[in-house]
Amino acid sequence: AQSVSQHNHHVILSEAASLELGCNYSYGGTVNLFWYVQYPGQHLQLLLKYFSGDPLVKGIKGFEAEFIKSKFSFNLRKPSVQWSDTAEYFCAVNDRTGGFKTIFGAGTRLFVKA
Amino acid sequence: DAMVIQNPRYQVTQFGKPVTLSCSQTLNHNVMYWYQQKSSQAPKLLFHYYDKDFNNEADTPDNFQSRRPNTSFCFLDIRSPGLGDAAMYLCATSRDHTGTAENTEAFFGQGTRLTVV
Questions:
Q1: Cβ-defined contact of B102 to A51 (cutoff 8 Å)
Q2: A71-95: per-residue pLDDT in tens?
Q3: Contact at 8 Å (CB) between B36 and B24?
Q4: I need a surface site. Which of A25, A60, B58, B104 has the fewest CB within 10 A?
């Protein structure tokens, strides 16, 4: 069965530190890839998405992610985190042809110390 | 403006007593989804509607049902809630269920946290 793995369940960083959250998926077909963020007390919202083209995708709030097809990975990065980035981050994948609907990783809780 | 609205935000129900959670959307999207999310776990897709067509995930228990009377509304019915059904239930919408990331991007409501006593 298809799955999405996020390697870190909890990450604690100081402000201005660099961030990289890992995401790997298991599916050999053509996929759409997403990162969603959930700030405390708020709903899940889209951070960025990848469909095709440049494998380095830029999203909101200075986040970016790189699709590496050979590694089945879509890691999220930010060069310098802020306290306001404290949130839970979810990687998600769906099959572009509809073979499976969007499935999520278990999430990574990021805490940024001021 | 809220685009996907779930009511209520918190629901307490008794063991075995049927409960209904509701979701409405102002996006006019074709697809509506229900996910179950337990603590520290990934949201798990229960089922989705593409327009009026209902699509159940293979491992969704029969205890969970859904209704979509029109484009804007979708309901999750739990016929006989058990203690294991306590979770956050997330409603989401998308323009389509196949194709580009733009078409399949999910828009989420704030969720309903269900407690079973």
A1: yes
A2: 999 999 999 999 999 999 999 999 8
A3: no
A4: B58
